[in-house]
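[User] I wish I could look at a protein chain and see how it folds. I have put the entry right below:
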Amino acid sequence: MSTTTAVLPATTRRFDHAGASLTNVVRSEWTKLWSVRSTRWTLLILIVATVGVSVLASWGTTANLARLSAHDRATLDPTYESMAGLALGQLAIAVLGVLVVTTEFSTGGIKPTLTAVPNRVRVLAAKGIVFAVVAIVIGIMTAFAVFYAAMPFWAHHNLGAHLGDPGVLRAVIGAGLYMLASGMFGFALGTVIRHTAGAITAAVALLLVVPPLLNLLPGTWGKDIFKIFTSNAGAMITSTIPADDRLSPWAGYMTMTIWWAVPLIIGAYLLKRRDT
């Protein structure tokens, strides 16, 4: 009798943990992500807004080329300029990144999730993997759609870029990577703050509001902060012409990666320490 009693808890324990493998948790998080209607709407808005604003910006810029100085025209980067809609696209993907984490906390759904999967870091990793896959796929698809939709306006003025030109393919794929980084930034903020409105407000401020204002700071230290701050750094991955006062494309992208990786690590630590 005592032997049977000793074996059953061990067997039950093995069964419980077998069902909480990373693969199974990823499947669960994938189902949860697509079961929420806001996911589809957010991604649709992302695509439409990014492509639409990029086309309008390219149309407006090319229509006023005659007003540009010879220097500005010579240093014009059509690929970078055609990606103007990323400013709105990054906001949409960052908001989705926040919602992937905070929705369960706001509804209380995180409690049964963590009961089924006691390993909290595994839950966070599964959410991150699922969201990252969606973000990179949608980001790259949107980037190529933007490129092909906006470039005819530049080609009409003999300024069109082609994927075979130096740096162009990297810049277009980089635009997709930039969307991934923006989304992961929102995901990281959601992990730390765990409140939807607060995390979205922080994402909007740090990605859209604060970056351009930093250029107004006096002295060289203002310029130094400006070029390494979130989207200012990350957006350089979409450029094809080097800028003396900005980071190089990959240095800028790695800088933005640090911006979301550090808070995500902090968020993972807090997730382990906090009560749900």
